[in-house]
Amino acid sequence: MGKVCGSTSSRPSARFARALGFVVPLLLLAAAGCDIQVGDGRKATLTYTDDARAAYEEAMRSYRSKSWEDARALFAEVRKLFPYSRYATLAELRIADVEFEQEKYADAVSAYREFIQNHRTDRDVEYARYRIAKSLFRDIDDTFLLPPQEERDQGTALEAYRELGAFLRDNPRSRYAEDVRKMHQAVQGRLMRHELYVARFYLRQDIYPATIARIDHALKLFPGSTLEPEALVLKGETLMRMDKPDDARAVFQKVLDEYGGPFAVTAKRFLAELDAQKAGKQGT
């Protein structure tokens, strides 16, 4: 017969078998409406909790050794055998982690969301929300076999952006906040680049109002993006082509006043060009 991968057999361990012998009679008695008295009631509770902890720790050993299928099966048994323990709740969360670690991000998102739905007040809801955001972030395609980022559908990126932003609004002091901010900024830059890609497409087609509308939409939707000066220079260039020199001048001046870097240099060059055009008109 084939050998099961991982260090743990998919069959219940001896500890699980003992737990089964203890738990099943209790559940049958409860279902029949009988009072449950197993010697010292406090001792029975401790035995249940100790067995739940031991079963959970056994599942965690498979998890830490990256025996994912064994870990999934063992966590599922913890939930089945010890449904009224804290370890059943933790096992449900770890099953979602197994999906995440296997890079099954869509399944992980579903599992984390189900955990939140089932345990709205649990202290690990913050962690589950963080992992949802991280799953969506990692699910954004970035392989070299695909078209450039700007040309791809941005549905997953937009969902990740919203989830990351919601997490930061609700948990500004979270221990995960720094990592979430980095992801949020990265996704924001990607989405902004997509908007500028579309705006440049309209500009090449000489569809100037659509170009301006797309840039303004991007600036409103993604405030604080590191690509703001690039967007503003593109807007100023479009306004020049629309023969709106005063509006263009105001945009370029904003780049000079509020931003540095290479786009400030570009804005300064456009301002010089506007000055030359103005001087030429005055001389004629």
Automatic annotation (TrEMBL):
Alphabetical keyword list: Cell outer membrane, Membrane, Signal
Pfam families from the UniProt entry: YfiO (PF13525)
InterPro entries per record: BamD (IPR017689), BamD-like (IPR039565), TPR-like_helical_dom_sf (IPR011990)
Domain called Outer membrane lipoprotein BamD-like: residue spans: 51-249
Protein name: Tetratricopeptide repeat protein
